[in-house]
Write a structure and sequence with these properties.
A 6-stranded mixed beta sheet has the order 7-2-1-8-9-10. It has one domain. Helix 2 runs antiparallel to helix 3 and helix 3 packs antiparallel against helix 7. The protein has 8 helices and 10 strands. It is α/β, with parallel strands linked by helices and about 230 residues long.
């Protein structure tokens, strides 16, 4: 069984969804500390031909709290208006905007559950079939940290393969995984480009941008545009 574990991000970049696509089970790492200035509650979309940051507003966010201990403000009409203005002329706006509206208007103030719902709904739209679970629901040794905590989750879920984002290469020891019977790989996203409006292509934007400009068939090609190292 192939496993991937990631903190929940808000409308993340295509590489996040590639991890979901390649994994049999995807663990939302909700019982770890919140990271400020990360991608848990913010990302970037295309406005005026430029990458522009947007934020999911939170209440009392702190790196001393777990992700599942943080609340969202629950009033995100401003965010929907920003997406509307940015993409109302995009080719797949009429299909995608109602999904984003359902996500943003979801009646849940717990950050982890709110993001988990977002990940599930977008996965459904993209036809990604990975089983999604929360790490807080897994019986595990919560005293463990970093790599040892990941290995513990892998063993408890009977994973024989663990896939991580390419940025984790300096965090994990391939030999230590092999010693426990688990193959460790990192997913490296290939260069992906597509037609946006009339601007030069702007990379590394939220999945929102990809959904607005591409049909599902073409997004599936992007989901499979990676290498495992």
């Amino acid at each position: 069984m192939t496993l991937a574990i990631m903190q929940p991000y808000f409308f993340p970049y295509i590489g996040y969804w590639q991890l979901l696509q390649v994994s049999d089970t995807f663990v939302i790492f909700d019982d770890v500390n919140f990271i400020k200035r990360g991608y848990i509650n913010r990302n970037s979309i295309l406005i005026g031909g430029k990458s522009t940051r947007f934020n999911l507003e939170l209440i009392g966010s702190s790196q001393n709290k777990l992700i599942n201990e943080i609340q969202i403000k629950g009033n995100n009409s401003k965010l929907l208006k920003t997406i509307l203005r940015a993409y109302k002329k995009a080719p797949y706006f009429d299909v995608v905007y109602p999904i984003l509206t359902e996500i943003v208007e979801y009646k849940e103030n717990n950050l982890a559950k709110f993001l988990g719902n977002s990940i599930t709904l977008i996965s459904d739209y993209l036809k990604i079939s990975s089983n999604i679970i929360y790490s807080s629901k897994i019986k595990k040794n919560n005293k463990l940290r970093a790599q040892n905590k990941i290995l513990d989750i892998c063993k408890r879920l009977s994973a024989d393969k663990y896939i991580n984002a390419i940025g984790g290469q300096e965090l994990y020891d391939r030999d230590k995984f092999l010693d426990t019977g688990i193959q460790l790989n990192f997913i490296k996203t290939n260069i992906i480009e597509y037609k946006q409006f009339y601007n030069d292509f702007v990379p590394y934007l939220s999945i929102v941008d990809i959904m607005m400009f591409n049909k599902i068939k073409d997004i599936h090609k992007m989901l499979n545009s990676y290498s495992l190292v």
